[in-house]
Structures are given as structure tokens and as C-alpha cells.
Amino acid sequence: QKELLLTLKGKENVTKSGQKINLYANIGNVSDLAAVLKNDAGGIGLFRSEFLYLEKDTFPTEEEQFVAYKQVAETMAGKKVIIRTLDIGADKQVDYFNLDKEDNPAMGYRAIRICLTQPEIFKTQLRALFRASNYGNIAIMYPMIISVDEVRKIKAISEEVKEELTKEGIPFGNVEQGIMIETPAAAVMSDELAKEVDFFSIGTNDLTQYTLAIDRQNAKLDSFYNPHHEAVLRLIQMTVENAHKAGIWAGICGELGADTTLTQRFLEMGVDELSVSPGCVLPVRKAIRDAE
Ligand code: PEP
Ligand code: MG
């Protein structure tokens, strides 16, 4: 089995009938890059940038972030690298953020909500990302979106950052900006959201949690946490359809993307990209090539 998978390195992600799909990898640290290359992923579909914040006892500087993002961009040598802006809060607590204890952290002050409330933290990360975009093919992705209004606020801030960099004579590339679809609100509003962004990436871990009202961290509920629930699959389908109507692409970066029992179904839905943990790239490639 393992040898069979190795023969799939360098092969296309194409079905028997010629349908192609992008197959990228999810990473959470610069040190995961070796596994991305070894498993022949076509790019990075989700780089969880939290590690930069979690491994320190104070805010990472713009320069520290820039160095890390640049390294990823250069290592991937022109392949797409989708970096998610910070998703701190809920299960990922960092002392120096001084977040209050909350009764419902998963539904609380986290991710983009922190970034829009404390734009100086957000702008530092965006400056580092745009600067690093000069060294490769970086795209930026925003987590936990629920509304068009949020996206417009984000775009205003990223425009400000670009203007500042331009004024300072600092170069940056052409950066695709997309959002994660991981709340039912975002999936339901995906027709409107699609007009505002360059791509969607569906976060099925949180989308399942919020759609089914089941805490993804509560082991007692494991038997109820069912990402195959038809409600979740319908939201995925709807999101992909609305993306295509607006002429943008839609991928899946939650764990469900690696579920080979659903590969055929995702292809039928017209999903454009799957981003999976590095070790799942070749098994998913096999499932794609075995699909009709
Ligand atoms: C998700 O929610 O599906 C996702 C990819 O993000 P995370 O697992 O980091 O919350
Ligand atoms: Mg998530």
C-alpha cells in the first residue's frame, strides 16, 4: 500500500473522466514544510499562523512574522501558500492577549473578532504577510467570518496596509484574499460573500461544530459529532455553488477534506481544492484518481 502511494508522487490529481482538482496541505509550523514537499502537495491550503503567537510570551514582531512567512513562500517556490490570519481564542489561549475567561469560548472573543477589535495586532500581521508576498505566491485567508460587513472592514484595513507599504516604498505582490466558511452564517450568506473575496475555504471542523451545536472539543459528544450530517454536506454544496456563480473558487481545508469516502461526492459538487494534512495527500490523490 505504502509503495503504491509512493508511485503517485508527481502524478496529477485527475479523475478517470479528466476532472482536475487542486490538492494542497495544511500546516501549523514552518517545520512542517519538509512533510509538505515529501508528500508532493501542490501548495499549502491552510497555514495556521497561530504557532507564531503560541510559542512566544509576547506579541511576535512584524519582522519575526515576515521572516517566517518569507521562508514558507520561498520554500514553496511559487506554489500557492494560503496563510490564515490569527485564530487565537477558544481552544488556543495565549497569556499576553489577556483574554477574559468566557463561559462559551468557542462562541466568544476569538479570531477575526480580536483582529477587528484590536486592529494594531491585525495590521502588524498583514504588513508582514504583504511584505512576504514579494517572495512567493502568498494568499491571505480570514477565519470565523459571519458577515459581509466584517469582510468590508477587513478589506478597508488591508487597503490601508497596502497604501502604507506603497508610501514607504516597500514592495509586495498580488495577493489573493479569501475567507474561511466555517460558520453556518457564512455558508448561508455565501452568495453575497462571494462577491467580496477571491476564494472560499470551507473549515468543516468548525462548520460541523456550529451547525450541529456540538462542541468539537468535548470527547463525550464524539458519537454525536457527525461531519457527514446532511446539513453540513448541504452547506458545503451551497457554498461551492455560490462561489462558482460569482466566478471564484472554493476548497475544503477542514479534516473532512481528507475523508476518502467523500472524495467522489466533493468532486461531484465541483469542489476546486482539497487541503489535507501532509500525510493524507497521497491517499487522497489515490481516491481522486480512482473516482469516476
Ligand atoms: C476548521 O475549522 O475546519 C479549520 C480548518 O480550522 P481549525 O481546525 O484551525 O479551527
Ligand atoms: Mg476553524
Can you give keywords for this protein?
single chain, 292 residues, alpha/beta, 8-stranded parallel barrel, 13 helices, 8 strands, 14% strand, globular, binds phosphoenolpyruvate, binds magnesium ion, Phosphoenolpyruvate-protein phosphotransferase, coiled coil, kinase, magnesium, phosphoenolpyruvate-protein phosphotransferase activity
Explain this structure to me?
Its EC number is 2.7.3.9. It is found in: Cytoplasm. It catalyses: L-histidyl-[protein] + phosphoenolpyruvate = N(pros)-phospho-L-histidyl-[protein] + pyruvate. By secondary structure, this protein is of the alpha/beta class. The protein contains 13 helices and eight strands. The chain has helices spanning about 1-5, 35-40, 50-55, 60-75, 110-115, 120-130, 150-165, 185-190, 190-195, 205-210, 230-245, 265-270, 280-290; strands spanning about 20-25, 45-50, 80-85, 135-140, 175-180, 200, 250, 275. An eight-stranded parallel beta barrel has the order 1-2-3-4-5-6-7-8, surrounded by four helices. The longest helix is centred in the middle third of the chain and has 20 residues, at about 150-165.
